[in-house]
Amino acid sequence: MAFRAGSRFFRGVISRRPVVSGLRGSASRFLPTGNAAWSRGGRNGFIFTPACFITSDVLLSRLMKGTAAEADGSFYRVPASVLPDSGEQLSLLLRHPDQPDNSKVLKVAIIGAPNAGKSTFSNQLLGRKVFAVSKKVHTTRARALGVLTDGDTQIILLDTPGLTTASKVKRHQLEKSLLVDPWNTVKEADLIVVMVDVADRWMCNSLDFEVLKCLAQHTDIPAVLVLNKVDQMKAKDRLLDITAELTCGVVNGRRLRVRPVIKPPWAKKSPDRDLESSPDEENAGHEDGAEPNSLLTKEQMKVLRSQQGWPHFKDVFMLSSVDPEDVETLKNYFMVAAKPGPWQYHSEVLTDQSPEEVCTNIIREKLLEYLPQEVPYSVTQTIDLWQIGENGELDVTVKLYVKKDTHMKMVIGTAGQMVAQIAREAGEDLSRVYLREVKLKLSVKLRK
After folding, report:
1. Which of 412, 438, 409, 444 is nearest to 425 (CA)?
2. Considering its fold, how many domains does the chain have in total?
3. Which domain holds residue 401?
4. Mean pLDDT, residues 174-191
5. What would the mean pLDDT of 314-329 be, rounded to a whole number?
6. Which of 220, 229, 331, 341 is 20 to 30 A from 284, alpha carbon to alpha carbon?
């Protein structure tokens, strides 16, 4: 079992420098391995380097040999973009893949509880903001696909809505896609990435029960654990205990040795999964076929309810998805894990979303960011104008429909300042996605 510091290590691999001797001589770059995989020491009681990962010695050996990337410059390929014309974007999606003879591919399903940072990670990896991101839950409302093509390898990211229950969807009047899309997406994957927000001290001690059910139903697909938002943690030594809890003390079939620590009062009691939804509510969701829980027996469900973590993770990563170097570590892991096979998309494809879908998602992101409580979830959108001018500018006009007069006042804001700010910031984001100036106009209407 190896526990290694990621970002600095991979920089050495990419440049083909003799990194082995240098790393072995630096305690700040390497953490102990083997049976003594966990160590507390130093001034703060724990030596920690961001973008660390726990992995098998076999994979580490492959990474150190430089198989993750070539040094021909292709590693720093300029990210693709979304074409602003729907027809051209569709045509690009249908183009025959321009793959080399030795092509490799990997489909990665990113799952986790709502607001774990899945879309933020995907955007950082792709190099463009194609998925909506906000601090509120259920920002991603449907399954979306991102494509990263680098050299001879194509990584297909399957960004999913946060796993939730039928009772929550009904209670908050959310789309049924939030129930169906994550489960269907995982079936396509070669690798499952389970993302956990370690900055949420109330939820980081156990995996979301929906995540556990998903893993239990796809034991044939390798899974890795990503502890996200480590930059927001003050007590980094907590990562050791969180890792032990979420992996049941086992990674890649080998048991971790973690010294016991005195936990703070708030960590003594793990979240009770039965507080938010009763068995009756969950069964009500099963009857209409919204959740594929029937694949698990009652006995299996009972066992899962007694678990805090999953003992079959292949590897564990600790990173911050807003840090490019941290994300580069996981990118290299994907490159190594990719298997020989045909690409599914042309190398210029960035996402399977239409330009209009990208636009409405970015606008929804701003609504969620600036409007309180349930207001943004009740807003619907209609695109009235989508026109590319002779100078290449994209003119977009979108109508926002709200349910109540009070909601309408909130969306408009004092002297129209709120809707103007949303239009301005969304337009700036879209300009970076389409690589051209975007003039976005928003109007607010009361829904009949």
Report:
1. 438
2. 2
3. 355-446
4. 64
5. 91
6. 220
169: in domain = yes
Alpha-carbon distance of 88 to 67, in angstroms, equals: 35
- Same domain for 427 and 287: no
Q: What are phi and psi of 331, to 5 degrees?
A: -60, -45
- Per-residue HEC secondary structure of the chain comes to CEEEECHHHHHHHHHCCCHHHHHHCCCCCECCCHHHCCCCCCCCCCCCCCCEEEECHHHHHHHHCCCCCCCCCHHHCCCCCCCCCHHHHHHHHHCCCCCCCCCEEEEEEEEECCCCCHHHHHHHHHCCCCCCCCCCCCCCCCCEEEEEEECCEEEEEEECCCCCCHHHHHHCCCCCHHHHHHHHHHHHCCEEEEEEECCCCCCCCCCCHHHHHHHHCCCCCCEEEEEECHHHCCCCCHHHHHHHHHCCCEECCEECCCCCCCCCHHHCCCCCCCCCCCHHHHHHHHHCCCCCHHHCCHHHHHHHHCCCCCCCCCEEEECCCCCHHHHHHHHHHHHHHCEECCCCCCCCCCECCCHHHHHHHHHHHHHHHHCCCCCHHHCEEEEEEEEECCCCCEEEEEEEEECCHHHHHHHHCHHHHHHHHHHHHHHHHHHHHHCCCEEEEEEEEECC
Give a yes or no: residue 36 inside a domain. Answer: no
**Do 365 and 295 share a domain, yes or no?**
no
Assigned domain for 59 exists:
no
CA distance 303 to 294: 15
295 shares a domain with 212:
yes
pLDDT tens per residue, range 34-85? 333 333 444 333 444 445 666 666 555 555 554 444 434 444 455 678 999 9
Instruction: Tell me how far apart the alpha carbons of residues 61 and 57 are, in angstroms, rounded to a whole number.
Output: 6
- Of 298, 316, 340, the position where a domain reaches its end is 340
pLDDT of residue 79: 67
State which of 340, 373, 395 marks the end of a domain. 340
The pLDDT score that the predictor gives to residue 25 is: 31
Do 176 and 284 sit in the same domain of this protein?
A: yes
* Residue 115 located in a structural domain: yes
Same domain, 261 and 404: no
